[in-house]
Write a structure and sequence with these properties.
Layout: E1 27-31, H1 35-41, H2 46-66, E2 71-78, H3 86-109, E3 113-117, H4 125-138, E4 145-152, H5 154-170, H6 181-185, E5 198-201, E6 220-223, H7 233-245
Parallel strand pairs: 1-2, 1-5, 2-4, 3-4, 5-6
Helix pairs in contact: 1-2, 2-3, 3-4
This protein binds farnesyl diphosphate.
Farnesyl diphosphate is lined by residues 32-37, 50, 53-54, 57, 76, 81, 92, 95-96, 99, 148, 203, 228.
Length: 253
């Protein structure tokens, strides 16, 4: 069973001090993988893994705040996840509502802002309503930005950007010679958000699974065999410490 910490435990109570950490990544993105395998190992249904994974999301938000990370992007539901059995899809799409029902007051109290990336309009009403409410309630908060990737796929994000650009060119709102990387970025769901500095993927898989393909161009990757429900402060710190050692040259020398 994963270690339980009370939500937003104070620094003093924590077993791990932050003062060893310098050069903390501003933006951490996480592919939270391995819920199904975690459940299977315990002889539980897959949804039990997702439920535990939801509690780990809560704990990870707490840790990101504590370690002064500014943006946390979490891959919660991909455009490909619709292929799963209907009851699992339904369960996954109900999790944001359950999560926010339980934790929104804490998030508000702790100055967290909730945002999403992905095809929001195609989500079921029960997901949209809960998430929209949380976005509105937290929109003026200037602490940690928690960005849930919900019904997100990077290729469809890029396709959408191309269509929006073509429409703006047609409407003469945009001239093609003005189009550069920065301008293209403003047509992505992540508009206005800096690119991730660190990508973490749990569960031993080493692939991107259609996540932030444009935005991860210069991101540092960190993989762990730990399954998402077992993700802990120790593992998070290990990733942050490893990030500190990286030399980022962005193609220079
Ligand atoms: C991948 O594990 C995980 C997902 C598809 C869902 C991730 C969702 C959560 C961690 C909870 C989200 C919580 C909120 C608040 C939105 P998998 O099911 O593919 O695992 P497996 O590869 O072991 O089968």
């Amino acid at each position: 069973m994963s270690m339980k910490l009370p939500f937003f435990k104070t620094k003093q109570e924590s077993p791990i001090e932050t003062n060893e950490l310098t050069n903390v990544p501003e933006h951490v993105a996480i592919i939270m993988d391995g819920n199904g395998r975690w459940a299977k190992k315990k002889g539980l249904p897959r949804i039990a893994g997702h439920k535990e994974g939801m509690d780990v999301v809560k704990r990870t938000i707490e840790l990101a705040s504590k370690h002064n990370i500014k943006i946390l992007t979490l891959f919660a539901f991909s455009t490909e996840n619709w292929k799963r059995p209907k009851p699992e899809v339904e369960y996954l799409l109900r999790l944001p509502k359950e999560f926010l029902h339980t934790y929104l007051p804490d998030l508000i109290k702790n100055n967290v802002r909730i945002e999403t990336i992905g095809d929001f309009d195609s989500l079921p009403d029960f997901t949209k309503e809960a998430v929209q409410y949380a976005k509105e309630q937290t929109k003026n908060n200037d602490g940690l930005l928690v960005n849930f990737a919900l019904n997100y796929g990077s290729r469809s994000e890029i396709m959408r950007a191309i269509k929006l650009i073509m429409r703006d060119v047609d409407d003469e709102k945009l001239s093609l010679d003005k189009l550069d990387e920065d301008l293209l970025s403003t047509y992505l769901y992540t508009q206005g958000i800096s690119d991730p500095d660190l990508l973490i993927r749990t569960s031993g898989e080493r692939r991107l699974s259609n996540f932030l393909l444009w935005q991860l161009a210069y991101t540092e990757f960190w993989f762990t065999d730990v399954l998402w429900p077992d993700f802990s402060e120790e593992i998070f710190i290990e990733a942050l410490m490893d990030f500190q050692k990286r030399s980022r040259r962005y193609g220079g020398i």
